[in-house]
Design goal:
The protein has 423 residues and is mostly helical. Helix 6 packs parallel to helix 7. The chain starts with a strand and ends in a 23-residue tail after the last helix. The protein is globular and about 75 Å long. It has 17 helices and six strands. The strands form two sheets. It has a three-stranded antiparallel sheet, with no helix packed on it. The longest helix is centred in the middle third of the chain and has 27 residues. It binds carboxymethyl coenzyme *A (CMC). The site of carboxymethyl coenzyme *A has 20 residues, from helix 16.
Length: 423
């Protein structure tokens, strides 16, 4: 609570509304009492609405700042790794050396999925999109861990978190293997988290594929940079589903569904489709003109962000990682990647993009890195989903450990008033 309060004048009546200050960031006006005045607030797209209190992640979109539990994302990307970040998001602090070892060992304990999960895959068409498979299979995990799970018990929630962190790469790689008709690869617990994922994606029972440490590091960074992003569409979906007391695996499946769209996590896949459609550096101007044309629905995928109106700090790190990966793989002259670099340059210099503060976002560069590593486009959003699972879970856990109410937005009704059934 602050000393400040807001006053709302409605039809001559003044309504006092309390205000609260966060640690940093804008103050919020508590509008909860408005319902007793017969009033709702109207905020489609939730642009001005804080739906919860949280201590996990802070974003200042104007300054291009992203903090997890107070640590800047670029600092974490430089000095930490994905599993440490998972610990930080879940427990609020970076792990000590011993805690880190114990955390990694527990994750390793849970990397395999129940053998019956394999049967779920068989129900999907062989050409099903891996996101469709992932959404279904993660939802199906709730069938394996339902009766044994009491969401009011911190220990049960912790085990659910470990299961999700450990099994998501296994499931993601299984989605890929199924879609290309190769046998599933079991996890190899001698490998680190990111390397194990690459192993399950690219090795076959006939032979192991080894990766340059720079590629493994890039993969881990992609996981880190997608790990959490405050109350975005998919995280809010997980919170809303979770507010009903639903099984956490089912809640995570709802987050995967929300992430799939091209305005959210589907953007990294859409970036590559767009680059393919552009086809040649010579066609870039035409596509930039389309993006600027108000009568054309086309948008430059991988540009712009609802919150960042300055360079996305994740995009900065991703850009550096992208340069490194392209140089390690000797792909600086790849035609598609040439289009990407030229597009980035043009958009950064174009008045339309400058005026609207439309910078390349994290998905622009992550799409390029994943393509360079040899990961197919249909897997891009799946990788985003597996990385974001810890963020979704941390938010769900934060909500469930506190007093929470079922989420129930209201509406501005514009339909018919009561009318009689036609005689
Ligand atoms: N290309 C061309 N014009 C754009 C673009 C774009 N990518 N993004 C926004 N604009 C224009 C938009 O037409 C509008 O122009 P005007 O003011 O003249 O009407 C102005 O910029 C503001 O756009 P908006 O639609 O009000 O912005 P928003 O905050 O509602 O949308 C966005 C944010 C990310 C959905 C949007 O920028 C977009 O569609 N970008 C492309 C898809 C994309 O890359 N999404 C990934 C986001 S990052 C990953 C994540 O966090 O999920």
């Amino acid at each position: 609570m602050t000393d400040k309060k807001a006053q709302l004048l409605v039809d001559g009546k003044t309504i006092d509304l309390p205000m609260y200050s966060g640690t940093v960031g804008p103050d919020v006006i508590d509008v909860r009492s408005l319902v007793s005045e017969g009033l709702f607030t109207y905020d489609p797209g939730f642009v001005s609405t804080a739906a919860c209190e949280s201590a996990i992640t802070y974003i200042d979109g104007g300054k291009g700042v992203l903090l997890h539990r107070g640590y800047a994302i670029d600092d974490l990307a430089e000095n930490s790794d994905y599993l440490e970040l998972c610990h930080l998001l879940l427990h609020g602090e970076l792990p000590t050396k011993e805690e880190s070892e114990a955390f990694r060992a527990t994750v390793r304990n849970h990397t395999m999925v129940h053998d019956q999960v394999n049967q779920f895959f068989r129900g999907f068409r062989r050409d099903a999109h891996p996101m469709a498979i992932m959404c279904g299979v993660v939802g199906a995990l709730s069938a394996f861990y339902h009766d044994s799970m009491d969401i009011t018990e911190a220990q049960d929630r912790e085990i659910a978190g470990f299961r999700l962190i450990a099994k998501m790469p296994t499931i993601a790689a299984m989605c890929y293997k199924y879609s290309i008709g190769q046998p599933f690869m079991y996890p190899n617990n001698d490998l680190g988290y990111a390397e194990n994922f690459l192993h399950m994606m690219f090795s076959t029972p006939a032979g192991d594929v080894k990766f340059d440490p720079a590629i493994v590091r890039a993969m881990d960074r992609i996981f880190m940079l997608h790990a959490d992003h405050e109350q975005n569409a998919s995280t809010s979906t997980v919170r809303l589903a979770g507010s009903t007391g639903a099984n956490p695996f089912a809640c995570i499946a709802s987050g995967i569904a929300a992430l799939w769209g091209p305005a959210h996590g589907g953007a990294n896949e859409a970036v590559l489709s767009m680059l393919n459609e552009i086809g040649d550096v010579a066609n870039i101007d035409e596509f930039v003109a389309k993006a600027k044309d108000k009568n054309d629905p086309f948008r430059l995928m991988g540009f712009g962000h609802r919150v960042y109106k300055n360079f996305d700090p994740r995009a900065k790190v991703m850009r550096e990682t992208c340069e490194e990966v392209l140089s390690v793989l000797g792909l600086e002259n790849d035609p598609l990647l040439k289009i990407a670099k030229r597009l980035e340059q043009i958009a950064l210099e174009d008045e339309y993009f400058i005026a609207r503060k439309l910078y390349p976002n994290v998905d622009f560069y992550s799409g390029i890195i994943l393509k360079a590593i040899g990961i197919p486009e249909s897997m891009f959003t799946v990788i985003f989903a597996m990385s974001r699972t810890i963020g979704w879970f941390a938010h769900w856990n934060e909500m469930v450990s506190e007093n929470y109410r079922i989420g129930r937005p209201r509406q501005l009704y514009k339909g018919y008033d009561k009318r009689d059934y036609p005689a």
